[in-house]
Specification:
Blueprint: E1 18-30, E2 37-44, E3 49-54, E4 57-59, E5 73-85, E6 93-101, E7 107-116, E8 122-133, H1 138-147, E9 170-185, E10 203-204, E11 210-211
Antiparallel strand pairs: 1-5, 1-9, 2-4, 2-6, 3-5, 6-7, 8-9, 10-11
Amino acid sequence: MAEERPSQVQPAAKDPVFLLMVSGQIESAEFPEYDDLYCNYSFVSGQDWAVVSGLCEGITQSTRRSSGPNKHFVWNFPIDVTFKSTNPFGWPQIVVSVYGVNSLGRDEVRGYGCIHLPITPGQHKLKLPMFVPASESHVSKFIAWIFGRSPEFIDPKFISQGEGRELTKTKSQGHVTVSINVVTKDLWKQGFRSGANEPRPTITNSSKQSRTVQL
């Protein structure tokens, strides 16, 4: 009687992983009407993304407006984080919120802003337009003035989402400048080219024809 040999189960193929490395600094801000400001930043990404190293959030020191002709708030606060993912969907965004102290000595938001990180490697300078929630009526403005509390979001990361944003009344004020260096690794395995130095990806479909996808 022949012996039965155990069947060999092939391990499931893992989805290719690529890396996104970001370093730089929260450079400066422009808020002509205020003084003594600090900045809070965080990165928001999709479910398939994970932080490999570095910090995905932080808070800068408080600074006064410079006396030069530009009158900027200079932080030069370093940021350094590395992400990994198997899917470009949910590409990371940086969310920035700026705070100051009002006349009652309470922290008050001066502006929110967010932007997607660049998909191309290299040095980038991002200028984020800032905004704050606006009161919808004179009564709510008066109540905010009495209690020394201007409208603000419970979670600053809310601004990185599209859902519910169309119902929010806002007012533009100020800008924040972020300078960053972007490096990607193995993004071509997903069928995308983020730079001239990466291999040219080839994706074969059911008809055995190849095509190239370039970001």
